[in-house]
Amino acid sequence: MKPSAVGYSRPESVAAALDALADLGDRGKVLAGGQSLVPLMSLRLARPEHLVDINRLAELSYIGVSDEHVSVGALTRHGELLASAETASAQPLLAQALRWVAHPAIRNRGTVVGSIVHADPAGEMPAVLALLGGTVVVASAEGKRHVPAGEFFLGPLESAVQPGELAVEASFPVLPPASGTGFAEVSRRRGDYALCGVATLVRLAGDGTMAEARAAYLSVGPTPLVLDLTDAIAGAPAESTAACRAAGQRAAGQVDPDSDIHASAAYRRQLAAVLTERALREAAAYALTRGPGDWPGRAGGSYSSRSFERSRRGPAELGTDDRHEVQLIVNGTARTARVPARRLLSDCIRHDLGLTGTHVGCEHGVCGACTVLLNGNPVRSCLLLAVGADGCEVTTVEGLAGGDGALSPVQRAFAECHGLQCGFCTPGFLTTITAGLRANPEPDDDQVREMLGGNLCRCTGYQNIVASAHRAAELTRAERGEGGEGGGT
Length: 489
Ligand SMILES: Cc1cc2nc3c(=O)[nH]c(=O)nc-3n(C[C@H](O)[C@H](O)[C@H](O)COP(=O)(O)OP(=O)(O)OC[C@H]3O[C@@H](n4cnc5c(N)ncnc54)[C@H](O)[C@@H]3O)c2cc1C
Ligand code: FES
Ligand code: FES
Prior knowledge:
Blueprint: E1 7-9, H1 14-24, E2 28-31, H2 37-42, E3 50-53, E4 63-65, E5 69-73, H3 78-82, H4 85-90, H5 92-98, H6 104-107, H7 112-118, H8 124-132, E6 135-140, E7 143-148, H9 149-152, E8 153-155, E9 158-159, E10 166-173, E11 179-186, E12 196-204, E13 210-218, E14 225-228, H10 230-233, H11 241-254, H12 265-290, E15 323-330, E16 333-340, H13 345-352, E17 371-374, E18 377-380, E19 393-395, H14 409-416, H15 426-439, H16 445-452, H17 462-479
Parallel strand pairs: 1-3, 2-3, 15-19
Antiparallel strand pairs: 4-5, 5-10, 6-7, 6-10, 8-9, 11-12, 12-13, 13-14, 15-16, 17-18, 17-19
Helix pairs in contact: 7-8, 11-12, 14-17
Bound molecules: flavin-adenine dinucleotide and FE2/S2 (inorganic) cluster (2 copies).
């Protein structure tokens, strides 16, 4: 399935975006990272008439850390927030939970605010916002409103953001003194949506005993569920496994999950007990490392909310198949295509540009076969509209070899270690490993498996693919003259 015809505009300012959304009302939809919206469109579960693409709104790409809040702009990607050391120090729960959001290629594109607005009951960011009592700043052509987390999540995939509105910021309180946080979840495959997950916050009393415990659950109800578990742990030493276990049992009695094809309600309730204990122990241990009364000073100026000027309105096209010019640098060469807004980047690469090395399997972001590098970062090309990639550099599998046609170290390693069988998944593995080794040239085995966790091989040849990634790391280091055993080339 492919998305249906859709109008498209890409405003250059927040004011212009708000005006476009006001004109469109319930016929318009905000396109942020597209990591949920594009697959829903491909499956025809969403058929918006017009997309307002906010990816050029650089003013919404920020992380602001003050003594009170971590403020995240609507264009901040999951991967950017996860990489922010200042954020991890001010509110560690964000990094603890973000590691569980999908795969690196999806975190490179998906936005934190988009996750929250999407309000998936299995999403980590909604649960984190709910536990911490954060706020979402929602703007429209009429002005701004601050919506507390407790009023934001209305039902599965339903938030307080109304047609014509744009969520511009999510704000998370920093870690309170003498407190720690934890996060645990279980999914069928690393990076999949959780069967059950829990975020926890524990506060210690001055004598090192536990004084307060709260937990927020994902995948056990239509919206994030926040439970106060203080009664089960109050007065127990921070190291008390028994108290955390008792809190887990209490939580299991209070959650009311559904059964579905992924897990029974009973299994989810059991997970709630086990994961609560695990995440509470992590939070208490974290709090102990800080010590009672600790309030780490944080550098960085405080963020002040911005106001947006009104702009002149222009007419928006609705549900059209009008063609847009897209200019790309593909494998170092300037390329132009004229495509309808609904054209997926994967289809543009294959059909408009004739580069059929990029393969498509699932076309909804799960298999990783279509992974290409966008401005050097791995992304799912089936989850991007070609119009959204306008002006970007794209590297496909055809661009990995050197100018003289010599295979890259990753390609040589695949040949040497028999990393391919039918080869269908191979282009996605090659691009993913190429980018992964740039980010981490010396991965250990766990890190290699994490790097590859978002790519499926239907032949299940994973052992040789993992071996190929290790060998590619050696070959890359040898090529750079950094040691490692180069082997024959
Ligand atoms: C294979 C796969 C696995 C995934 N696993 C996980 C996971 O484990 N955990 C998880 O939490 N997510 C997961 N996701 C979803 C992913 O994290 C998305 O990035 C996220 O849910 C939505 O963010 P986005 O920026 O891509 O939003 P988009 O897809 O662009 O938009 C999603 C919805 O929110 C609306 N929206 C977005 N931003 C705004 C805004 N600023 N104002 C108003 N409306 C807005 C859009 O109109 C749309 O309705 C997964 C996705 C895939 C494909
Ligand atoms: S992830 Fe894009 S085709 Fe499967
Ligand atoms: S080698 Fe056959 S799908 Fe991966």
